[in-house]
Amino acid sequence: MMAELGSPLKGPELFKELYGKNTEVLDRIFGPERFSDTQKQNISRRKDAYFREFYAPHLRLMKGLNHFLSGSHEQNILLAIGTAGLVENIDFALGALKIRNLFSAIVTEADVQNSKPDPETFLRAAEALGVDPSQAIVFEDVPKGVEAAANAGMKAVVILTSHKASDFSRYKNVIKIVKDYTELRPEALFQVAVNTP
Questions:
Q1: How far is CA 70 from the centre of its chain?
Q2: How confident is residue 86, by pLDDT bands cut at 50, 70 and 90?
Q3: Residues 44 and 71 in one domain
Q4: φ and ψ at residue 81, rounded to 5 degrees
Q5: I need a labelling partner for 98 at 20 to 30 A (CA). Which of 6, 66, 72, 184 fits?
Q6: Could you list the residue range(s) of the whole structural domain that residue 92 is in?
Q7: pLDDT 10s digits, 181-191
Q8: Sign (positive/negative) of CA torsion 31, 36, 40, 46?
Q9: What distance, in Å, lies between the first and last C-alpha atoms of the chain?
Q10: Secondary structure of 115-148 as H, E, C letters
Q11: Are residues 89 and 158 in the same domain?
Q12: Same domain, yes or no, for 135 and 175?
């Protein structure tokens, strides 16, 4: 989508700016005056339609995630999704993977005014679960998400997908850095969540 719009940024410089709501990304890269609100919404819808089309054949859970989610559910550990993503994308993924029933709350870009690193997304998710933020653990793969968790007073587990461990070194709320979910046990993390100030 960025190539189609003629983004002035390429490669790593562009990648660093691809977080938050689609409209915020457009403002950051092209400036707030480049597109009208209607154009931004149309671009956003088109970009997410591309995502669903391109990603559909490749959609699968990260290694160990199915076991982690079902284990959490069986132990009555509440799970929520807090994302800047569109409702349509969340519905697409949860429906295709058949895991919607494992989540007690879902907070998307439509539910918040401010995206990460603002803590609103995670605070709303904790509120929906009825959980004190200090006893919540956020699973994130980008620094801005870990920063949002810190701003919410939450601990974070970093999943290394597109960043290096060193990208998260300045965040004091990180309790674990892993490559996938095979290294995580829900009950052990739950103990960290409830027993760590």
A1: 19
A2: confident
A3: no
A4: -110, 130
A5: 184
A6: 65-195
A7: 999 999 888 88
A8: negative
A9: 43
A10: CCCCCHHHHHHHHHHCCCHHHCEEEECCHHHHHH
A11: yes
A12: yes
